[in-house]
Automatic annotation (TrEMBL), chain A:
InterPro entries registered for this protein in UniProt: CRISPR-assoc_prot_Cas4 (IPR013343), Dna2/Cas4_DUF83 (IPR022765), PDDEXK-like_dom_sf (IPR011604)
Family, as annotated: Belongs to the CRISPR-associated exonuclease Cas4 family.
Organism of derivation: Enterococcus saccharolyticus subsp. saccharolyticus ATCC 43076
Name assigned to this protein: CRISPR-associated exonuclease Cas4
Gene Ontology annotations of biological process type: defense response to virus
TrEMBL record, chain B:
Protein name per its UniProtKB record: CRISPR-associated endoribonuclease Cas2
Pfam families: CRISPR_Cas2 (PF09827)
GO MF terms, alphabetically ordered: hydrolase activity; metal ion binding; RNA endonuclease activity
Keywords: Antiviral defense, Endonuclease, Hydrolase, Magnesium, Metal-binding, Nuclease
Enzyme superclass (EC): hydrolase
Cofactor(s), names only, from the UniProt record: Mg(2+)
Gene this chain is encoded by: cas2
Residues binding Mg(2+): 8
Keyword Transmembrane helix belongs to the record: no
Family in the record: Belongs to the CRISPR-associated endoribonuclease Cas2 protein family.
Self-association state and partner proteins as the record states: Homodimer, forms a heterotetramer with a Cas1 homodimer.
Source superkingdom: Bacteria
GO BP: defense response to virus; maintenance of CRISPR repeat elements
Automatic annotation (TrEMBL), chain C:
Any GO molecular function: DNA binding
Protein source organism: Enterococcus saccharolyticus subsp. saccharolyticus ATCC 43076
Organism placement in taxonomy: Bacteria, Bacillati, Bacillota, Bacilli, Lactobacillales
Binding, Mn(2+): 157, 222, 237
Quaternary state and interactors: Homodimer, forms a heterotetramer with a Cas2 homodimer.
A UniProt-annotated Pfam family: Cas_Cas1
GO BP terms in the entry: defense response to virus; maintenance of CRISPR repeat elements
Signal peptide extent: none
Top-level taxon in the UniProt lineage: Bacteria
Annotated EC: 3.1.-.-
Metal-binding is among the record's keywords: yes
Protein name: CRISPR-associated endonuclease Cas1
EC supergroup of this enzyme: hydrolase
Keyword Manganese listed: yes
Cofactor(s) listed: Mg(2+); Mn(2+)
């Protein structure tokens, strides 16, 4: 199974969202926040090389000198998931033999950035996460709704609660 | 939200070409109502998209685009002096 | 936020720069802003080329076609994006397995008949004596859960409509001659109105199905061979009482529409062009009307309720949550 950065991200946000995404039930297309985020990606690094797709699996916003991975986010609301998304990219590229030093989370709207590193312990945890994602994806049915405060802003909200 | 967009493109340099492009881009999103005036309903993301598309052409030192926005169309009172051009923004034809 | 365009004028539909332009023979034109368009309705005699159709397809804009008399003739349904193979398999499974198909079909009739019941009750509470019909409807609705197959269910549905239609002459303040539904061609004012509005609801549902991930050709109440996009018939069934019937009652009772809006020589089969426009305006306004959704705690338009109906159906098919059809809750 090909695991994408989005899947890592969704894993930390909501297992149900992850399952639906894996089963190609997506609602991002019509959702305002998601569309705004997408536009932010496109407009953030105009001059630099951006959005590289590797193995049709990981889609990196911007790779600086093949050493620093940049991931653009709109807000800090889901920071943990974004951090793990970047760690996954670091690990993925290192396995390809690319000597990635670190990752950076960019918040152009907040004019902030955060450095992300990947240590051995985190590398181990990542392995567990990947296994867990496989496990959730292979479930026959979608996991239950989680009813968190961020549900309301999620592209899947109307699907989950209608 | 309901948008009224007006622009002024300087004729200097490649002004004519820029003006043509700005016009074409605006028409994808809004209704053309007067010479360089557009209006219509837009979402946040579409407005952003429009802005990004226009920024490729607008020269910051000589062209200007002004965007008025009203959260709701009905909060914007509209009168016609002279010709009534209500049908321009209608989706019936 | 996006809009539907209703083009009555005849002429040429063409891609012009980055928009689609409808040009009338007299040179007047209408530009359709493709970024903000949901769908396009064509009522006039229009010519167009593949360049225009390809452009609409790229922008995911369906187009619904009507002939001169306002009869729906078909839709241009752009290539679907975002297909879920998994969902399609489940859609088919629920169709081929008679037991599972019946569960969905019953819920559709159960919801549609509830909305019918509410229409009758509404007018009963406003002074029309419809006591008998209300009792009959209640009794008939009880039979739905016991139906053993689709044919039996369709029979019950037929009976419900028979009772329902006896209310119409009482509800409508204009003198109408209406006892039963006659289609192709309709034979009186009411049948003509129903046919016209039914086709509108069908197309609105289709446009909503298009943005959902459902395949429009697999249906549950209607047989998949009824029409090309039979799922749209299924979903429309639930919304017809509120979008078609209630609108007809109000148009007639407010005298917005009367005999003079029909072509009398054709035995009231045809709505005049300006009457079609009047109805469409009223229909479009009705679709934009919003109500507060209790679970979502948001204002939702009648049109958006159709989208939610697709979501609920998907959840049922994905074995996530049992389908409960839309029933008027206010």
């Amino acid at each position: 199974m090909k695991i994408t950065g989005t899947m890592i991200n969704y894993y930390f946000v909501c297992h149900r969202k992850l399952w639906l995404h894996v089963h190609r039930l997506s609602f991002e297309e019509q959702h305002e926040n998601v569309q705004l985020g997408k536009l932010l990606d496109q407009s953030s690094y105009t001059r630099e090389k951006k959005q590289i797709m590797i193995d049709e699996t990981v889609n990196i916003d911007f790779l600086q000198d093949w050493k620093i991975i940049h991931e653009v986010k709109k807000s800090k609301s889901m920071e943990e998931s974004a951090e793990w998304q970047v760690r996954y990219y670091i690990s993925y590229l290192r396995k390809k033999g690319i000597a990635v030093e670190r990752g950076i989370l960019d918040y152009p709207l907040l004019k902030k950035r955060k450095e992300i590193l990947l240590n051995d312990e985190e590398e181990e945890k990542l392995k567990d996460i990947l296994l867990d994602i496989e496990y959730i994806s292979n479930q026959e049915n979608a996991p239950a709704t989680i009813n968190k405060k961020w549900c309301k802003k999620c592209a899947f909200y109307e699907y989950c609660f209608s | 939200m309901y948008i009224i967009l007006i622009y002024d493109i300087s004729t200097e340099g490649s002004g004519a070409r820029i003006s043509r492009n700005v016009f074409k881009i605006c028409k994808k999103y809004l209704t053309h109502v007067q010479k360089s005036v557009f209006e219509g309903e837009l979402t946040q993301s579409k407005l952003k998209k429009l802005q990004i598309e226009l920024s490729e052409f607008i020269r910051d030192d000589m062209d200007s685009v002004v965007v008025f926005n009203s959260t709701q169309r009905r909060w914007l009172k509209k009168d016609f002096w002279g010709m009534n051009e209500e049908e321009k923004t209608s989706t019936f034809f | 936020m996006v809009e539907s365009y209703y083009l009555f004028s005849s002429g040429e539909l063409k891609r012009k720069d980055n928009v689609v332009r409808m040009t009338a023979p007299d040179g007047r034109f209408k530009d359709i802003k493709i970024e903000m368009t949901r769908d396009i309705y064509l009522f006039g005699e229009t010519s167009m080329n593949t360049k225009c159709l390809n452009f609409l397809s790229t922008n995911k804009i369906p187009m619904h076609l009507f002939n001169y008399y306002g009869y729906y003739t078909g839709s241009f349904y752009p290539k679907e994006v975002n297909i879920s193979g998994n969902l399609l398999i489940r859609q088919v499974e629920h169709y081929t397995d008679e037991t599972r198909r019946l569960i969905i079909a019953k819920e559709i009739i159960y919801s549609a008949s509830y909305n019918i019941y509410r229409n009758v009750r509404y007018y009963h509470q406003r002074g029309k004596d419809l006591e008998t019909q209300l009792d009959q409807l209640k009794a008939l609705r009880k039979l739905i859960s016991r139906a053993k197959n689709i044919q039996e269910l369709m029979g019950i549905e037929g009976n419900i409509h028979q009772v329902y239609y006896t209310c119409w002459a009482i509800v409508v303040n204009q003198k109408i001659d209406f006892q039963k539904r006659v289609k192709r061609p309709p034979d009186n004012m009411i049948n003509t109105l129903i046919s016209f509005l039914n086709s509108l609801v069908y197309t609105s549902c289709l446009s909503e199905i298009y943005v959902s991930q459902l395949n429009p050709t697999i249906s549950y109440l209607h047989s998949a061979s009824d029409r090309r996009f039979s799922l749209s018939l299924d979903i429309a069934e639930i919304f017809k009482p509120i979008l078609v019937d209630r609108l007809i009652f109000s148009l007639l009772n407010k005298k917005v529409i009367s005999e003079s809006d029909f072509d009398t020589e054709s035995n009231f089969c045809y709505l005049k062009k300006n009457a079609q426009q009047k109805i469409l305006k009223a229909y479009n306004e009705r679709l934009e009307k919003t109500i507060k959704h209790r679970e979502l705690k948001r204002h939702i338009s009648y049109r958006h309720l159709m989208r939610l109906e697709c979501y609920k159906l998907i959840k049922h098919l994905m074995n996530d949550k049992n389908y409960e059809g839309f029933k008027i809750w206010w």
